Protein: Dehydrogenase
Organism: Bordetella genomosp. 2
Amino acid sequence: MKLHDKVALVTGAARGIGLAIARRYLDEGARVLLVDRDQAALQAAMAGLPGQARSFCADVAAAPSAAAMVAECERLWGGLDICVCNAGMIRAADFLDLTLDDFKAVMDVNVCGTFLVAQAAARAMVRGGRHGAIVLMSSMTAELAMADQLAYGASKGAVRQMTKSMALSLVARGIRVNAIGPGSIETDIMRTIATDPQALRTVLSRIPMGRLGEPDEVAKVAVFLASDDASYITGQTIYADGGRLALNYTVSVPEA
């Protein structure tokens, strides 16, 4: 088991990629605190997980909540070894229609929430004398611009840069920081697109592998980055995107 007896915190863990990561970590022997602000979804997710899993309902964008979830790991298991900042949100809109409230909402969760949880986790690792691993969640949109994804793309670009700065800041403490940049993954958001055959064809036309990714395929990367297999890797973003960045194609520029 790659994560035997490690203590892990995973945010946005009630569904999708976050839940897949929590399951993988549990399978690899970790004790996992699943965090999400959707209490009902969190309870449903916990029903299918083994005894080494615990849940905590919180909003990552609130500083007291970030500190509280980390303190819960310390209370339950005496410390923290791994933190996955997966919680995120998206508000798609054309630039001319994007509201300040929507822009701020995305930044609060994706950027501020990531900062708050990662900082609280790093402080706990230092406090406990643990050489831990922090995994942030970026996106291929950190590299590829999309007309209706300004807020989301900006937030994930920020996460990509935060990964580098955090890694440099924490390397002397024995804490590694890396990020994952998923491509088109079969989550709840993507399933709404998949119900439209033309929209799905458009998405698949941009993926060299010709299919959507599975949440568990991202989770496997999260296991690698948290494990000793990645002991000489820090400050990096690994893109699990089916080759989409290599293709370097998104969509034609709309005509005026």
